[in-house]
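Dear H.,

Thanks for agreeing to be a second pair of eyes. The structure we're designing against is below in token form, covering all 432 positions.
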């Protein structure tokens, strides 16, 4: 299948292909809903925001190379059976567009994905050619996130890994069975193979940061995306899948994307109401516990309780099921114990450990150290007093936490609609 839409203007192509890219969450796109053409309405040109490996917020041109797909995935707006405008850039057009935007200070980098318009190698080639032009001819050293085409040859993947800062391949759905049902032309083995091959290229990510600097290959690592709510898998199943991926070949990040219905298809669920954003949000929080708080999946969920609690964040839900561990003495608890307290994040733990070398901490010190006392107080004492304002009983604490969580979640989820998914996830999970 040849690239199409060559009679379109560059502006029309940009409009079509940036619109076609907006459902991909794995670059932590802003998904901004601001209306109007005034100053700063950058989302209309496909500009989104992402977080670089060093934590800076950067603007990206988020765009598909082509939306002309030979596959027919049930959930996808770009699928072959949809009757809508198709367009493709040429590598020279896209590289020039990117560099023009960069020179005008609109963007600092590029998120490039594509529909599969030909066989994997032929679909991957023009993406690579775009990167070659940017890195070579235009001497562009900005951030590039490339979504690779699974099934392409190892040589193309190796070149992509040298040219891009981050690469991703979407696992799409939580199980092979669901992938077969909704995206039968995709091959799970080929997607997993991408992770293995890139892992082999990048070597041992567990090396100390200093010695990793010489590996200038895909330095920001691999990520993937899973759609949540299009198929019947439980949160337990989704987290088990994510955990397996993290334990496997060098995957840095799993993005969860609440299913947004864009097609009518008998294989898809009829969604009443808004996309499952609260569920997506809880999954990000649980994912954070797996990656940074040394929780195991089976501590968060089990077959008897396979769904995350919508009223409580997963760390608070765990603590409430394990009140036998609490309240902890903030002056004596170990680092690992402190990390398990709801409302006490990693930075707060470090501050507690540092501060208590100098002084005996009391309730009034903790707020100053950044502890979210609205949640943490029910699980702490200062050596003399329990810090909660309700009895240390599951029903009392649940009620107190639930009302706090409802307030916080409604604020944060409205933030989530308008802000970068990853920003929101970070903001939400920073002091779990
Ligand atoms: S391969 Fe599937 S998910 Fe990707 S663009 Fe084509 S139809 Fe959409």
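And this is the sequence the design step returned. I haven't edited it by hand at all.
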């Amino acid at each position: 299948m040849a690239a199409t839409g060559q009679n379109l203007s560059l502006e029309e192509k940009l409009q079509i292909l940036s619109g076609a890219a907006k459902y991909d969450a794995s670059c932590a796109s802003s998904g901004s809903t601001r209306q109007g053409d005034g100053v700063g309405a950058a989302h209309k040109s496909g500009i989104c925001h992402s977080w670089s490996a060093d934590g800076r917020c950067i603007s990206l041109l988020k765009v598909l190379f082509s939306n002309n797909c030979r596959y027919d995935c049930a959930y996808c707006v770009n699928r072959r059976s949809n009757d809508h405008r198709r367009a493709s850039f040429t590598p020279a057009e896209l590289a020039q567009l990117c560099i023009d935007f960069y020179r005008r200070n609109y963007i600092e980098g590029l998120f490039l994905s594509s529909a599969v318009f030909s066989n994997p190698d032929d679909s991957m080639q023009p993406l690579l050619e775009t990167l070659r032009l940017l890195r070579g001819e235009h001497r562009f050293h900005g951030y590039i996130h490339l979504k690779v085409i699974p099934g392409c040859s190892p040589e193309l993947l190796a070149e992509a890994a040298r040219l891009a800062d981050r690469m991703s391949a979407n696992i799409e759905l939580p199980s092979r069975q669901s992938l077969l049902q909704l995206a039968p032309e995709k091959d799970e083995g080929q997607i997993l193979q991408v992770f293995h091959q890139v892992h082999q290229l990048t070597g041992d990510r567990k090396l100390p940061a200093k010695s990793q600097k010489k590996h200038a290959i895909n330095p920001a690592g691999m990520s993937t995306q899973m759609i949540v709510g299009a198929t019947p898998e439980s949160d337990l199943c989704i987290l088990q899948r994510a955990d397996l991926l993290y334990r496997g070949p060098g995957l840095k990040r799993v993005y969860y994307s609440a299913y947004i219905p864009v097609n009518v298809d008998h294989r898809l669920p009829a969604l009443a109401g808004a996309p499952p954003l609260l569920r997506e949000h809880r999954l990000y929080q649980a994912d954070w516990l797996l990656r940074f708080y040394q929780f195991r999946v089976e501590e968060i969920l089990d077959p008897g309780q396979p769904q995350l609690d919508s009223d409580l964040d997963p760390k608070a839900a765990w603590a409430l099921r394990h009140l036998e561990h609490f309240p902890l003495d903030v002056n004596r608890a170990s680092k690992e114990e402190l990390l398990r307290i709801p409302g006490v994040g990693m930075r707060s733990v470090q501050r507690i450990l540092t501060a208590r070398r100098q002084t005996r901490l009391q309730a009034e010190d903790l707020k100053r150290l950044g502890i979210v006392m609205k949640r943490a107080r029910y699980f702490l004492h200062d050596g003399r007093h329990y810090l909660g304002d309700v009895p240390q009983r599951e029903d009392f604490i649940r009620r107190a936490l639930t009302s706090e969580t409802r307030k916080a979640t409604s604020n944060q989820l409205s933030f989530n609609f308008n802000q970068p998914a990853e920003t929101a996830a970070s903001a939400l999970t920073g002091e779990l």
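Two observations from my side: The chain has a mean pLDDT of 86. The chain has two domains: 10-275, 314-429.

Warmly,
E.
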